[in-house]
Write a structure and sequence with these properties.
The chain has about 110 residues and is mainly α. Helix content is about 65%, strand content about 10%. The chain has five helices and two strands. The chain has a two-stranded antiparallel sheet with strand order 1-2. Helix 1 packs antiparallel against helix 4.
Length: about 110
């Protein structure tokens, strides 16, 4: 049986446009309640709660209670880890190739 890693959970969470939209909302204004997040979504609270649960499982969202309200906060650490592992190395490679091309075109 395949073990699910946190990276797998992050990619699964980011694979859905609604979850990306929720992260965008939290990036714009961190610490929102479910009601506040649902104001911007065309879906039932139950569906939004399921999406938030997937984001929490991937450690992309954390929550804290303030009285009867549950506030949602974005956690950028897993995104940074994905960036470092999967994106950055390709950026470095592309920049290196562009530098080599520039050098060759300039005849240096």
């Amino acid at each position: 049986m395949k073990e699910t890693t946190n990276t797998d959970l992050v990619f699964k969470a980011l694979g859905d446009p609604t979850r990306r939209k929720l992260l965008d909302f939290l990036c714009e204004r961190n610490g929102q309640t479910l009601n506040e997040l649902c104001e911007n979504l065309d879906m039932a609270r139950q569906s939004a709660t399921q999406h938030l649960g997937i984001l929490e499982a991937a450690n992309l969202v954390s929550t804290t209670r303030r009285g009867r309200e549950k506030l949602h906060f974005i956690n950028p650490v897993p995104l940074h880890e994905v960036y470092e592992r999967w994106v950055r190395k390709f950026e470095v490679q592309q920049l290196s190739l562009l530098h080599q091309l520039k050098t060759e075109l300039e005849g240096k």
